[in-house]
């Protein structure tokens, strides 16, 4: 195991106490009035019950000295607030000032506790990533999942500094690209990288574009890894599609449309549509060279396909939308050919003359790929009239 049992138990106890303090501080910050400062309120009960235990914990960790000071200030302010129960002007002003101060100090306590939790989380995750064989797989995946959730809470400068100093991105990338590691761990590392990009794209996007991350994600060949790729494309847009194309990953991505795994094929279709929207001429040419239109025609012809052009032709727009949604739930490949053509037409990566040229090429390929004139007529009509979702 990564740590000995006593150490893990101690960290768990500390975390439990600090989480309770954090929640109590949050409650006081949200409701700092006199009623919250009464001795029988849940937040005050939590603070009083944890006072002795937290003092012991805080004295053993120098990184929590500031938190100890904040707690002392908060106790003093609470005492002052509880004593100012009179109806005079002086009591009123004291309560007003104390209430504002309590809210401010409670906010500082919450931030300090979260900073400590972030430091401990990064330390634990770094140990697990450096020695993945010394920790249970499910435990490491759980740590990674918690880290992903933390990033998705929004930007935090202190957390960003911790991430940059720890150089954890390099470890996440290395494991994502290491076929000897378990796929569950590799996939979750990739999800954390995707969350990092959304956390602060300006800082971390360069490491994705210049590193091996794209190859690592595609090489996993799973629906989860393709979901990560879709997220990265939506965040980074055309520059990422450029890298996908220049790294020669498009043939591999298009091949996933032939896999038996339905979930993988569905997410791959989403990825193909995203590449079509953000891709420049070279990326679109690479997809067409791999026969993407023919593969989409076959998917649309399958039991999970169909034609949206025949759905909800009558009635108002809202009813047509409901009909399409219900149909797509059971037919994820419905009108996927038109969906691809429309993405190219409305997307950001192509010039107008390139869009017109690709549309003609797509129409020609459709006619050659269809097994009947009726099928060809329907799909061509969808492409021309844009009856895709």
TrEMBL record:
Transmembrane segments: none
SUPFAM superfamilies (UniProt xref): ARM repeat (SSF48371)
InterPro entries for the chain: ARM-like, ARM-type_fold
Top-level taxon of origin: Eukaryota
Protein name, entry field: GED domain-containing protein
Species the sequence originates in: Salix dunnii
Taxonomic path: Eukaryota, Viridiplantae, Streptophyta, Embryophyta, Tracheophyta
